[in-house]
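Predict both folds.
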Amino acid sequence: MLFALSTLFLQNYLEDQLIGATLEEELDDYVNQLRLDPTVVEPFYTRIQGYITRPGDPNQTVAADIRALPSGVHDVHSGAGVFKAAVRKEDDLWAFLIYDVSDNRRLEQQLFLALVGVVLLFSILSFMLGAWSSRRVMKPVTDLAARLDTLSKEGKPERLSGHFADDEVGQLAAALDTYADRLHHLVERDREFNADVSHELRSPLTVITGATELLLAQDDLDPRVRTRLLRIARAARQSADITTALLHLVRAEQGTDKDSAAQNVGRIVNDVVHLYEPLIGNKDLKLLVRETDRVSVIAPESVVAVTVGNLIGNAMRYTNEGEVVITIGEGCVCVDDTGPGIPESELEHVFERHYRGQNISGKGAGLGLAIVKRLCSLYGWSIRFSNRPAGGLRAELRFFGQ
């Protein structure tokens, strides 16, 4: 459009310059002829009309608006049309050369409208062609994106490269197939490893638990031996719960977990507290359980035990004195302690794998809360930590409700 307008402007400019120069030359020639031969009559062209008059001549053959113009070339618009007027005023004569450019102006308008129409037409055609071309060029990419969105989350993903030609998009689809195969292999290997380890550990843990119970049943046990056996029993129970929870986690991700029995959360919490009581040791620490109403949840018992056990164990581990209060009711379990709490800047990182706070001492791999978060996400529970105004930390595990 800009090119067409600039072309039209250049054409008008050159035409005006050419007409003006021509009129001036014609007028000079006529004046010279007139001075050589006074018998030259006027007008002397059809479209270019020349007139000679004298200053103060009463015979006004030239229109007043043209007669009043100074020497030079002028554009004159009147009811009769559009004219180019070349004027030469000397002391003894006035010469006028008038050229009718009305047809030229009409032609320019028609040319302008035609150019605008052609530009608009070609713009529309270019837009339509560009849109069609872009859709045609991008169609394989959009098809690839659509197939990626519809890939099944379970099982081996469908091959993408078979649906596309051997071009850039086909090469991209082949690369995605290779990457998907690698991911599928890694996920399957991880699931099989978790399932195998969880399954294989259950048998020796069952043996350890059974043997420990038999030894604890003896009446003549030394108190120190009994304490050690209780620690073994607690560790075996915790290990059994975590392996069973991981096994349920793998099965749930595979869609094969059928365990949907309702569990009494209060009973599970009391069992977990009984297991964790030996951790108090010589600490000046009280472990209290308050159940305001019954809370039941549909989930494997081991999953609930691992989740609440991790929260209770962390509270006891990092609280040297005071109390740890477990409150059960209104669809949630709250664990409040009087420990040092967690810096606000670290609260958002506590569920990250292998994350341990800057001021945390003691052993630990930093995986407990990551596993808890994964279990909560799987069963639709929510968990959050917050520092208590009176000091200490609150861990809130909500099974349902706000």
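Second protein follows, with its predicted structure tokens after the sequence.
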Amino acid sequence: MPVTNFALKEKYKYQNGFDCYFETEAVPGALPTGQNSPQKPPLGLYAEKLSGTAFTAPRRENKQSWLYRILPACSHPPFTPAPAPNESLGLGGEPFRKLHHIPNQLRWDPFDHDPEADFVSGLHLLAGAGDPTVKQGCAMYVYAAGRSMGEREAFYSADGELLLVPQEGALDIRTEMGWLLVRPMEICVIPRGVRYQVRLAEEGKPARGYALELFQGRFVLPELGPIGSNGLANARDFQAPVASFDEDCGETAFDGPNEYVVTGKFNNALYRAVQRHTPFDVVAWHGNYYPYKYDLGRFNTIGTISYDHPDPSIFTVLSAPSDHPGTSVADFVIFPPRWLVGEDTFRPPWYHRNTMSEFMGLIQGAYDAKKGGKGGFVPGGASLHNVMSGHGPDVDSYEGARNAELKPAKVGEGSCAFMFESSLMVGVTDWGLKTCQKVQAEYSEHSWGGVKVHWKKTTS
């Protein structure tokens, strides 16, 4: 039968709210009333529960959705190992087990575009820590795609929840639960297990960006504490998709009219199954486990109005808490345009050593703490300052801020840097350290080799 995409006219219609319980149906009457799994769900659909947490997780933490679909997700032939799409995602997940843990500060030039790659083959593992088999840790990626995934292709990760940060080129992401258009200065989170397809919003216009995969837990909004009930990212500004589906299937699961390739990431290795029906056949769904997007321009920045430079935790958009209160497996932090008014205050980030690892990227513009240095910190590039590795503003940024006349000033106009911050010691892949050939070899020397001595000797 021909493919019919229902709800196409409302392709980018969204529901608003973070951690809300949503319900949506592309065909009226597709959602059952009063029961999740009646003996015969409406319209001859199958009921399938998608659980993001243990069944017995506390109610406030429980994440699950009920999908009502034409055929269940289990109806496919066995998965078989897939060839490695690139050196950083090798067969068997070997690159993740050979990470280099080094104390040196690292910075990368902008990563190359790849006109031949789609999202999956253009996803490069850069750094990480932990083990997805015991659901601990996280992984950091860059991606570069020059073409869309095929119309009969889908991808999912059993390893973790994926946060996407586009830097260049918009992504048209089709998920089992509906569509998301994700542009630079927006982010997207796709939960563990959700199947999706990434297309370029404008064919011929390449896409590039960053990604963080969370093996442990899930992203939540940070607590506001003394800030009160307003500030940072507001729950109302997060958007989830509405139901949209194809009806491309035969009379049974294995006699459909077309072949669809589903690629799964499992323990940092890829597996592939070919099935005879579309994976995008969810007619309706309800629950609180779903993909979502957020416009970074809606972030309500908090800062000092007296003196001193607050900790960067005030810029946290999303947080993935660990078992230790106040310490995160990963935080997603941004540095958007903002006013600085602090008196007698060194306004850029101060020099520091951190028990957390800090991976930074630049979406657009220029970062106010990195003005000089050969190569520079530019959009599409990145830096990594690992656990207790000293870092801070480069020489030009420091001297400028040290001698600046402190009037109210807006910094970061037209700019946005971000940080993946983790309590874990992060290792770097061979690809990130050598193969990509983007490491700035003299980053440390060019940034801090010329730091001046301002010490005024005392006389005895």
